[in-house]
Amino acid sequence: MSSEDVIQRAFEIIGEALSLEPEDFQDHETWKFLGLGDLLATAVASDLTNETGKPIDPSDFTTHQTVGAFKQFLRGGDGNSKPATSNATNGTSTTTTSKPTEPTDPWQGLPKPKVPLSVILQGKPSPSTKTTLFLFPDGSGAGTAYGTLPPLSPTTCLVALNSPFLRQASAFTVSIERMAALWLPEILRLQPEGPYVLGGWSAGGYYAFEVAKLLVKAGKKVKQLVLIDSPCRLEFEALPEQVVAELTRKGLMGASGARKAPEWLVQHFTSTVLSVEQYAPEPMGEKDVPPKVSFVWVREGLVESVAESGLEVDLGVKVTRFLLEPREELKTVGWERLLPGAEYGFDYMTGNHFQITQSPHVESLGRILQKVVE
């Protein structure tokens, strides 16, 4: 077999094991992200050796941890990429890697955004504005999802941030911290001085947290964070790709009514998950922590019963249970270690994680935001 024939057959075999088509694999995806655990890697390595005639060891998936690196290995090249290490915190396995060296200019090497970085949804930044609330997007990258929020207050300006990588998700290979740096000038343009109120849904909570750190570093004051159903990275894993695929297949992710999630949303969500997988947040110093941190949680899961839903997912992954199963009233769930010493507030809204900006549940969120930012 030629090297390309070996690659084609190899990814047919791997695809069968992971319930993916060979063309679904992206070179930047890691085997950990795709859900190739140790036991499955052992079985797949044996099948690859038998089918292709090329000796494959399970450790090859660790040595060549991305799809692209593994393809290069199959071609006979090196393709080495250093594996991530696992650090158990409170029984939760999290990916820890050395922090990448970020460029002085965060836009270096990146394409120009195809959409505006910010959209003013309510009010306008002015001296008469009591509060400007900046809301960062979830994994979809679309801050305009907050456009469904009811009017909050005549003295509140609501600004939604759009991802720089909307409609070009393949370029989204940057860290959560670098994403925050991309948004910082836009926030300072709209509100040159604090105090700032920042919030975000899901991964948007991570962006809000990192932007808060950058503002404090710049000598600005952040008075409040609003974390909307945002699972702390110290306690929860990144969402496995298999779960993304299953939720997409069942029409549970980013869907509205009978309409399934558009392809651009799924692509951006996948890129976000890859970025979150590498995210290892560091705490703010207690003197820098915003005085008030407001949590908004949903109680409902995506399905009433995982067993009866037909979803093929691993419920041993905490973040999968977080999304799928009904919950008790959550509290800080790890965020207290990143934001020590704040005054914490808790509110609970209707709907599940992906219905937060959909009617009628967004009305519940609107009432909460109206209260917490007063």
UniProtKB/TrEMBL annotation:
Residues 74-112 are annotated as: Disordered. Residues 83-101 have a biased composition (Low complexity). Residues 1-78 form the Carrier domain. Gene3D superfamilies: ACP-like, alpha/beta hydrolase. This is Carrier domain-containing protein. It comes from Cladosporium halotolerans.
